Fold:
Amino acid sequence: MSVPEVSGEPEPDRPVPRHLHTARGVGDRIFRYQLTATGVVVLGIMAAVGLFLLLRAGQALRARGLGFLTTAQWQPDVHNFGIAAVLTGTLLIAVVAVTISVPLAVGTALFISDVAPRGLRRTLVTLVDLMAAVPSVVYGLWGLFFLQQHVIGLSRWLSTWFGWIPLFAVDGTQPGEPLASDSVYTASAFVAGLVVALMVAPIQCSVMREVFAQAPAGEREGAYALGATRWGMIRAVVLPYGKGGVIGGTMLGLGRALGETIAVYLIISPVFVIQPHILQTGSNSVSSLIALHYGDASEFGMSALMAAGLALFLLTLAVNFTASSIVARSRSGAQSEA
Amino acid sequence: MTVVETEPARTSAPVTEPAGAVPPVADEPRRIGGPTRSGVLALCGAAASALCVAVLLFGQIAPFSGALGFTVTWYAAFLVLYAVLTGLEEDGQAVRDRVMTAVLWTAAGLLFTALALVVGFTAWRGREALPHGNFFTQDMQAAGPLDPLSNGGIAHAMLGTLIMIAIALAITVPLGLACAVYLNQIPGRFSRFVRTIVEAMTALPSIVAGLMVYAVWILGLGMQKSGLAAGFAISVMMLPIVIRASDVVLRLVPGTLTEAAEALGAPRWRTVWHVVLPTARSGLATAVILGTARGIGETSPVLLTAGFTAALNADPTSGPMVSLPLAVFNFVKSPEPTMIARGFGSAAVLMAIVLILFAVARVIGGRGPGHQTKRQARRTARASRRDIERYGDSNSPRGAENCATSHPQPAPDNGDSDR
Structure:
């Protein structure tokens, strides 16, 4: 860079980075202020969501204290209410949904990024995006009128053969009794979870596919050059590279599954007891509780619903923050040198 | 990828070549990947024998009923048989590869079958209500639950959806795009913080957005439930989605373009207005359209904030208003078959709107940033020709020559490179 001074100066000038001076015109300054203002407004709106829920929920939370977390009943007008049952239901539905959707999403993402014929890939990506945009009420209708009757067989089989696991147990039926009523298997957390799984799988899939597609071509070719089969390459290169994307996508789907309202509301029949049997009829979720009770709530009841909404909000926020920090910290998405 | 075939072509070609008299054997490129005959045979064989196994086993292993059980049994048998058949002539690695490939095909197939089922089922059940013309022109004011489908319709819900989404777009498009530009153009600790919050809010439960507007607008300010409130609720839900999608698009704008603009002395706002935004236009349009598709389909924020009515209401500031998803939701809660048919009809209309929006987004956003349509390319070419003439008029003839050569067509790879 610098031409060496040969003249025998005792102390050559250390290269000092030139101070860059930016002269901003009036237009630019206004521009910057305006943009920053929109940033503040957006942040304000987002903060207002939490703030107003907290404000409105205050009354109910003060009245109930810690009992809010441990009570299963929902009778706000006699001050006996809590989210133990609905929160359990929400989590169970979300867990069922994620358990089903993650293998589907990972498989589809890998299929699109590595297996599908090249000409088909863009169409498939569009289809996945389209699936993510299908309104949730349509999924709910489908689950209620189509999927439910086809799932009963599966539910019965699961409860017959795996009923010894408490999760799959169903009260009111004997294992192996073929003539048990179908209705004990309908409107369960399992059916709701299945529908929600189909709703979140495309979202997870598009996150994962984006990360898988970024796996460095050099490393892929290296794996092939070492004699790996395609699956060997996927296991050695794509999956380790995309681990962050898989985890992040899973969490993102979990966040969506926790907050899903209408599809769950349409399918489950609400109960206010802690219902750990996912195959059995009756379950509940925070969002369907709100949708169910907002209409007939007194002022205090509304405050209680706000408290439930706040709990849901905090839960999804925690899940989302975890997801984004995992994605940001992993190697996924980093530019590769290869 | 695993296929290693012996090729006589390569070994025989050098021998025949020096002779010259014999026409040289065509040098066939080695096929890598793709289906081989034995692979296809193994696949078909496994499928066929799995079918037989399933027919034999079905009803014997468990009281597993319905088509679903049969398919699952068949699939499990198929995987095992396929592994065995492939194992007859390949090593373990290749067997695993083949089986996993089959599994990946299945996962994708399942997901896309589910999509087809959801869309197809809705359209199929909607067939009863859709042929009635009054379904699109009347509201439900005069139609009771027992009335036939030839009476009443969803005009009020379609109008409501239109008004609500217009309100939501009027809020989210300026605010969302400006915020996305902010995240990209003014880096710093604060904008990183805003980006983190926005990303966390992308999966904000929609009912919480509705609850927030309910708390602020209806309980806090004492307003009525109205279309305006529903529009606000949809905006709160759409805003993070639009910001995030546009942020991603803006990041794809090539740095060389903005640097060129800055090097020409353009202030930042001119760079953004004349270079960044036009370059990313198609992507931004896609982001907005996808956000719209999500916003149109949301039920729960509308459920809390819009109220419900059976009458046509074109005034978003007063009185309850209904949107399509909310109408679907209310129709199917009724036990009457005609109401359920109306619900499916509305759902089909909703699906159709989302599909159309998607198709539009695909047409607009199909190209990357900087890639222009033919018409846009012609327009920029015309603009640069005008510039050349302008320079030629103001400068000396020699200067005009220089300008003509040193003024490149903007985006030299436009037009055909994305084909």
User: Anything to note?
Assistant: Chain A touches chain B through 102 residues (CB under 8 Å). Residues 26-64 of chain A form the longest helix (39 residues). Chain A has twelve helices and two strands. The mean pLDDT of chain A is 81.
